[in-house]
Amino acid sequence: MKSSRPLTRKSITPEQFRNFIFAGRSVFTLENNETGNYLTFKVKQIKKNYKPVPGKFAIECKTLGDNDHGYKFLGFLDTNERKFKRRYWDTNFIGFKTWVWLLKNLSRLEDFTKLSIYHEGRCCKCGMPLTVPESIDTGIGPECNKRMYANSIQILKDLGTWNDSLTYPENARLGLEADPSIWGQIIIPDGFNKEDEYKAHRLLKAFDIF
Description:
Blueprint: E1 10-11, H1 14-20, E2 25-32, E3 38-48, E4 51-63, E5 72-78, E6 83-86, H2 94-105, E7 115-119, H3 133-138, H4 142-159, H5 168-178, H6 198-204, E8 208-209
């Protein structure tokens, strides 16, 4: 018998969201606190031969009250080449316009005080329901969080900047200074402000939409 326990939806900060969005199976809602309108997005990593393809995602969106058609497929995103190829014909669709806005403003979401971001109670990496309080806070399950940190450390070691005597945040900062393109591949620790992430943010301001 399946559990009837409801999923725990929770708000997350912009810096948590930047770790969350491209983890692999993220589902999140953006809400305009002034109007009460909201949109829910799915950002799912594409797989080839059952293996995730790095940097390639399929994007879907569902609008408030749309119980008839469900999610609309918007297109494909390549975070390595910083390109979004749309597949939804109506560029006036609020979901498409909001997605383009999100790509252009991902580095400065803190500036939009009327925006709230929520995860939908599932791990952004594997899609399983979240039950551990710490995981509900971040939107990442404990086992996936361990794997994501282990993968981040390996990337930093392969880059040649890892220092065992330093903390992970200190190592992450060194790695980003050496190669800003690893943003989106490693976990960015809470507390990194926009000055700390500035090099990485420049990469997010140049998505091509076509």
